[in-house]
Amino acid sequence: MNTRRIRQLVPAFEVTEGAGVTVHRSIGTPALRNLDPFLMLDHFGSDDPDEYIAGFPDHPHRGFITFTYMLDGHMEHRDSMGNRGDLRAGGVQWMKAASGVIHSEMPQQTDGLMRGFQLWVNLPASEKMSDPAYQEFSAAAIPEVIRNGARVRVLAGEFGGTRGVIDDPATDVLYLDVALAVGADFSLPLDDARNTFVYVFEGSARLAGEALTQHTLAVLGSGDTVEIAAGEAGARFILVAGRPLGEPVVQYGPFVMNSREEIEQAVADYRDGRLVRTRAAMTGH
Ligand code: MN
Question: Which fold has domain 6-276?
Answer without folding.
Answer: Jelly Rolls (2.60.120)
